């Protein structure tokens, strides 16, 4: 299967979708987070994608991170409506891509922890085993696999069992390309404590895997984690370096887009070929990455 990386040395991803939506005036104080806007304000999502393409992104990641079937059905939608909302996330990103004159769309497959909305995407503390996670992911996976997206973005994965479940879904979908990126607790381990080398080995050499990497992880850990990934191209899109105060429900610290862009050059030189930003990064962060990577 042809990889999107066959056409370029480095792909630049977008930044924090929810972060920019808040800048655009959206209230995301809800367990559905940005996915709520698929029901209430899809035009805002479209504008956010447009802004990231204008800033220099090659890839738009869809607003399906928290858009699980279970979450939508918990809001009274039936299974067909849930499927339509998940696929709408791809339609919006595709429209922005087409308006920009090119680029790619990566359909976000967020972790089970995002549905729990209790911070478990940063701990891997789950109440489902591998088979349970497989069953939970399957409806959205199947909807996104047939959505027309260029690839799936399995992101912020904190759990080795969840990674194994996603690997099984990928094997069931031979027409699909995907990257798999993990949330990490330090420079050597994903959030549940599994060594990064073990996680990378799960996907090494798989022709469907566009990249293995890390996201929503402190920038200070990225170079160490890159060194532990072998057998696949590498994707990195860390958060801004700020830390989330779960008790106070606020971000602490500050990250400079110029410094972030300079760090992106170091990540590329260390071996990353897909680079972007996650929580608390903005179009300006992506603009700085583009300026540094050309």
UniProtKB/TrEMBL annotation:
The keyword Zinc applies. Its EC number is 2.1.1.10. One of its GO terms (biological process) is methylation. It is an enzyme of class 2 (transferase). SUPFAM superfamilies: Homocysteine S-methyltransferase (SSF82282). The keyword Zinc applies. Its cofactor is Zn(2+). It comes from Sphaerisporangium corydalis. PROSITE patterns: HCY. This is Homocysteine S-methyltransferase. One of its GO terms (molecular function) is methyltransferase activity. Zn(2+) binds at residues 216, 278-279. Residues 1-293 form the Hcy-binding domain. PANTHER family: HOMOCYSTEINE S-METHYLTRANSFERASE-LIKE ISOFORM 1, ZGC:172121.
